[in-house]
Design a protein that fits this description.
The chain is mainly beta and 224 residues long. Helix content is 9%, strand content 58%. The chain contains two helices and ten strands, in the order H-E-E-E-E-E-E-E-E-H-E-E. It is elongated.
Length: 224
């Protein structure tokens, strides 16, 4: 993780010395309003994008993860963490007109979240359909740490209105996640499987897993 952060800092600092005459405005600082209402990893996110050539740019996004909208949710308390993303964009050379630029991108990142969570647990070996399935369940509160590596492929459009930039993108990716629980009543028990699709179960179940990711971003910024 330390090596990844150092690499991102080197990319950002070296870009300030690269190709001084490439663009009149090569830099953008952006804010992500959708990050504040993100269901799984909410927080405050800032991005810096540097254009190296007419078709290539690199973007670094750093987020402080905090859940202000659900701060009174007793099931998930003391939510905090960080998220960092490095994204390389390739702009279509023939898709630039009237300050509108289309692009594709490849991004990779890392996040770490700590919080106090709660869920139903049950002894291992009891499966759905067993007469004891529901009677054996109990509610427990515990410490949760969730880390993950993100890999995304996206397509997007960037609008420039004077110095204001609007960046919209969506795509497909994967998250390689690891979840650990501590301070549980019985660490040998497992989280109870919900009857219906439950996003919290998929993201807070203990262990390592790979799940799909569907990035959908909107960034508003200032170009200079």
């Amino acid at each position: 993780m330390k090596k990844f952060i150092v690499f991102c800092i080197l990319v950002a600092s070296s870009s300030l010395l690269f190709s001084q005459n490439a663009f009149e405005r090569r830099n953008q600082i952006k804010f992500s309003p959708m990050r504040t209402i993100n269901l799984l990893n909410p927080g405050f996110e800032l991005s810096f994008e540097r254009k190296f050539t007419e078709i290539f740019s690199t973007q670094i996004a750093v987020a402080y993860l905090v859940d202000l909208l659900r701060s009174h949710d007793n099931n998930r308390q003391n939510y905090s963490g960080y998220r960092i993303m490095l994204e390389q964009k390739l702009f279509y050379a023939n898709a630039t007109r009237n300050n509108i630029r289309a692009y594709i991108s490849l991004g990779t990142g890392y996040y770490s979240v700590n919080m106090i969570s709660s869920a139903f647990f049950m002894p291992r070996g009891i499966e759905l359909g067993d007469p004891l399935y529901y009677d054996s369940q109990y509610w427990d509160m515990f410490n949760l740490k969730r880390t993950g590596v993100i890999i995304n492929v996206k397509t997007g459009v960037q609008f420039l209105i004077n110095r204001v930039s609007i960046d919209f993108s969506f795509g497909l990716g994967i998250i390689i996640q690891n979840v650990t629980h501590t301070n549980r009543l019985n660490p040998e028990d497992r989280m109870a499987t919900p009857r219906h699709l439950n996003v919290w179960y998929m993201t807070e179940r203990e262990g390592r897993n790979v799940r799909p990711n569907f990035p959908f971003t909107l960034k508003i910024g200032y170009s200079f």
